[in-house]
Amino acid sequence: MIAIDTNVLARFYCDDPSDPQAALQRPLARRTMIESASIFVPATVILEFEWVMRGFYETGPESFCAAVEHLMGMPHVTVERWEAVKDAIDLHRRGFDFADALHWACSRGCERFVSFDDRRFVRRARRAALKPEVVAPR
Hints:
138 residues; mainly alpha
């Protein structure tokens, strides 16, 4: 089994014809993703991949969600904490920030998820009746 980094996913899923380095790396990423017998993708790589797609490639949530669902559907790929990633993808499609959604999904066994600064996340989570509940301490 090999583990991959965010840049491999970015080169595999995102075409960047204006970047000469990407033109060199994309075929290598494709070969790695398709020909490797077994691939492991850390949950942190999925988190960073969302940031790269949104921040650098300026793609919308649906493109990111579709890419990760494709990745999780590849039979030789194991995504760490795939259940949490799947739940975070579902919440992201419903308008939640992906990082917040993944943090919450990874905390499923806890009583509460506490956040100081993200009142929007707290309100949205309350409306969605997420359990564990998301709260801001007072």
